[in-house]
User: What shape does this take?
Amino acid sequence: MAGETMQSERQGTNLDEETFFIYDLFRMFWTRVVGLFFREIAERNAHLIPRTGPVIFVVAPHHNQFVDPVILLMHAVRRVYFLVAAASMRRRFIGFYGRCMRGISVERQQDLAKTGTGRIRVDDRYGEPTLITGLGTRFLAEIKAGMKVALPKGVGEAKVVEVLSDSQLVVAKEMKELAAMELLTRADGTSFKVVPHVDQDEMFHSVYQRLNNGECVGIFPEGGSHDRTEMLPLKAGATIMALGATAANPELGLKIVPTGLNYFHPSKFRSRAVIDFGQPIDIPPELVEQYRKGGAAKREACDELLRVVSEGLKQVTLNTPDYETLKMVQAGRRLYQPTQHSLTMAQQVELTRRFIKGYSVYRDLPEVKELRDRIEDYNLQLRYYGIRDHQVETMRIGRAEAGALFVWRLLWLLIMGLVALPGTVLNLPVFIVTGVVSKKKARAALAASTVKVRARDVIATWKILIALGLVPLLYTTYSVLAVLFVRRAPLWAADLVAGIADWSSSRIYLWSWMLAAFMSYTALVFGEQAVDIVKSVRPLFLTLILGEEHTELLARQREELSDDITELVNELGPKIYPEFSNTRVPVDVLLGDGKKTHDNIINGSADAFHRKMREGEQALRQRMGGGGSSSNLRQDAEDASSTSGLRQRRPSKYSFSPPTPRTMATLNSISPLEFLTSVAPPQTAQHPPPHHSMGDSPDCDEVETMELPADPPNTKTAQVAPSAVSRTSAAASQQQQYQGGTPATTGPSTPEPQNGMFDFS
Assistant: This one.
């Protein structure tokens, strides 16, 4: 008997080792594929991940469907097993990979919902609002107590308490939402879906087993992917798992790690992303005891832990109520002058997060309102000229220098374009097919969702999946055609293939395959740089056409706006961030290194070519006198800067009092989204951020917009003088209404994306 037990244990161990081998193999494969899709993936605070013991990774926002788990796998030093929707596990290919990655299947009620027969309505809205009347319905055959009745577009749902007849049933609570009542009080009623009750005991048992084995589980608590600028309401599944596992095993030592995903254009090939790990959360023993009591106490314990987890996620994600707010905050962050000129992606994200927090508090201050209007005016001019913020400084040169650089970059563009052209042509079918199919899938996902804006969260996944199948097929086709061409070469090509005519077919096939892959690689390296050069040419062209006198006005406007934003941020920063001292301590000391853990030979090669082009530009500019043709306005500014040395802080002209401890406690317990939605005026219709490529910008979150004004703005009148709003005692009294705190982070630069998804140009 003992021998049989030992043999069984050995078999189990071998099975686990085999399973882990398959897991590690597929993990390595997918991380390489996703790493190729993105230009750069940075991480913050991965050192906070516990190296041993059970961990639940709570990941949000879920902006990139099946790409999100892979990015976590790239940076989590441990094996992580994700909860995967059973509907996805039932798909042929996704289910295969999900099982290889030891995914835990979870059945979602919405995936099992079926359209009910007939239509429903509420006859007596005020007398009996929970009595549902059916028109041509079959309640007795289709619905049972415990199921739910759901209205179209997710406007409302209610649990069925009792089915009275085929045409009448009673629900547990009234559907009070205005949109729901409008549908239910129509004379002809509304269509509906029947949502069955799902028993999740098997899923919870699988999770508990993994946690008891000291393993890691990943969950996306929003319940599904989306492309909104704010997190969706979190579901309680993660807290039930944490409290349930700890209640069953008090010595478990479980940790919850909030994980934020932030993207720069999540659906675009060769974009950027940042993953941010928060401080691990312990499971409070008092909540575990409360959970054991069951009933209302159990729900309260789950709600309290969910609040703690939600707060942890807010510290590693970006949340704004609409895209316009996000665009304005990002513009302010770009214009702010840290002590370090170049910020990493992780530093940009952290700085943006602090700006959002500060703006949510001080948005009603006169100074902030004035700067907001000036930022909107500045962005309007950028849209008119068709340039980005980081390109404004490149326009502060004379016509002669601009012309020389224009020709120089066109020459580099020609060289890189010619090198990239063959590979681009070879892969053109891939670009076309992935673009068409992914957009079709996005339209289908949008039609089936009640939370997506444009369903951009599914595009990257489908691009990767289609390319994985199409690229090998395409290269195989090219290789077969090469073999046929050599074997049946026409007379005019006899000399061309003479050197390889004696090769075997397999050798020709193999070399053709490798040549196609190499051409694709060169197209990726050189084409990426060519696109960056194309975007950098427009400011030079504008300088040639408009002249330095005109373009200098925009540059001066940016400089003055940047000075005023920096001054305001430096004044208000210490009131919300104590470490933001007058000396502006380097942010990298406060926020970590922001390591770029994903870097490959493609990025290195591209950077080498880009560096050569820049070195040539520097030599060209030196020969032309180092930019001595710049305008007198610019020269005056440089002279003033050189005589004063480093920027001196002006005396404080603000009379704001620091926030009280109670105000700070309130601020830290409420998200920026809750601040904004509680005091914000009615917003115009939201438009999802447009997606565009990064260009050669040193700053990854510039926003690109779609529409252009009909006429150019008056740059002379648009040039706003430094802020001169009076600071009276009224400002001090008004400050008492604002819930203390300010945006900025300090210092040089901090590790920074992606909400997530956010399209930061």
About this structure: The chain is about 50% helix and 10% strand. Confidence is low (pLDDT under 50) at residues 1-15, 582-601, 626-660, 666-761.
